[in-house]
Amino acid sequence: MFQRLLRRIGVVTKYDLNEYARRFIAGDDLPTDGDLAVGPESAMRIATVFACVRVLAETIASLPCRIYRHLPRGAAEESPNHALYDLLYRRPNKRQTAFEFFEMLVGHLALRGNAVCIKVTSGGRVTDLVPVAPNRVRIEQLEDQILVYHILKNDGTDMPLIADDVFHVRGLCSDGYWGVSPIAQARDTFALAKKVQNYGLSVFDSGGSQRVALKFPKQLSDKSYKRLKEDWPRIYGNNAETAMLEEGGDAEVIGMNADEAQYLDTRRMSREEICGIFRVPPHMVADLSRATYSNIDKQDLYFVKHTIRPWLKRIEAAVSRDLLGPGKFFVKFNVDALLRGDIKSRTEAQRVQFTHGVLTLNEWRAMENRNPLDGDIGDEHFVPNNLIPAERILEEPEVQPAPADEPGEGDGPGGVENEPENGPDKIFLPIAADIAERLVGAEVRDMGKGDFDAFYDRHRIYAFKASEAIFAAAGIDDDSRRAALADAVLKGLAAGCEIDMSRRKKRITALLMAEVDERNSMLWQARAIAALGRDEKQSVDCGS
Prior knowledge:
Layout: H1 2-8, H2 17-26, H3 40-43, H4 47-61, E1 65-70, E2 76-78, H5 85-89, H6 98-112, E3 114-122, E4 125-132, E5 137-141, E6 147-152, E7 158-162, E8 166-170, H7 182-185, H8 187-205, E9 212-215, H9 222-236, E10 250-253, H10 263-278, H11 296-324, E11 329-333, H12 336-339, H13 343-355, H14 361-367, H15 423-446, H16 452-466, H17 468-473, H18 479-494, H19 501-531
Antiparallel strand pairs: 1-2, 1-11, 3-4, 3-8, 5-6, 6-7, 9-10
Helix pairs in contact: 4-6, 4-10, 8-10, 15-16, 15-19, 16-18, 18-19
């Protein structure tokens, strides 16, 4: 039909357009302007194409595909009991694993722009997804907008199926029901890469020799011409022998060598263009010519956001349309594994989420593939003690009445307590609390700077100096005990178990009070004796 139409308007073409249209729709090899047929199968023999398709297919296939259920207030939960959960997560059909299935599905999409599977049902439930090569599928759109899939079976017969019996993932479409093959659309780019590849093969097949023209001062006899034509390619075609010319002949090089043809630059340009078609960063196909240590992470993030994410959305939408249907269930690929940074950056991000109550300890441990903690503590959410809701900022603070002082049992004359257990708190607790306040403030201020090794060394020295005041007040002159105290402060911080500021201050205060507890008791009793006005000091056994 196309051929007759073009001939009627005076356009002559060397191609059979009916066959050309069929091949274009199926994604088969198509002739280019240089008469080099290029299609998905031949394009996969180009190293960069094969590498790009592998990167896309293996990356997406490695991501777990799970079914979730919508909950109120925008929440969602995984639904492992859904009838299709195992189909998508473990075994889509009897001969493929989930990895193999999605790897093949993405390969079909990347090369042919479509991925088609037949839905096998039993009792109204989909039990298998049987993949079909897209070049064996033809779609017919009826007048009532119903799509009929004509699938070519192995015996050559046609198997028509309606859209409800097919799982179809489309790439970029021009008609709304059949995706366009990237290979067909950019066939000239792939043809150039293939020609450059073939040129390199021909150069090395000929031993690197170039085309030459043989010149003679006079016309050769028929016998000499025939012998030269037979012997020259056989003897000298692969540079195996030294050329010997007779009858005054001379050899002159014609054509371009590899340098003049800019062979390496052309190959590099073709590689970059193909990577651009598939949106794969060049360093992922082993082209590190422009990769640096600082931009690799950014390119990996670009790959997830602008390459992998659109493919995942396309597949998720097709699953919801053809398999799940409308309702409260949806499917989602988990890309967290692709976004995992180095352990230092990852731990810092998780710590911030834990500090602000986004993660529990067990959720944090699950991200690092560790078992949950025993008891309920691992499922609790922790938030800083000094945070309040924004709407409470303008509220008047509630004033609590101060408790009345009541004389306790054992109070001595003049209101001085006789129980030595209460004395150390009155004398040294304010000093310890002040030191704890300064240490926690330094931790909050300096932890976000990122250089943890330098922070720990700096904070150890700071903790050692800060404890000088309470050690001096207690009369303790022992640097080794102060160094041990500084190490204890850092140990609690490194363990990551004291995130709450209030709890952290109490912990450091307890460490300080434990160090000076013995000396505190002696000093309190000395002051108590002076307050009672006793002239004779009593001997007090303070223990060891």
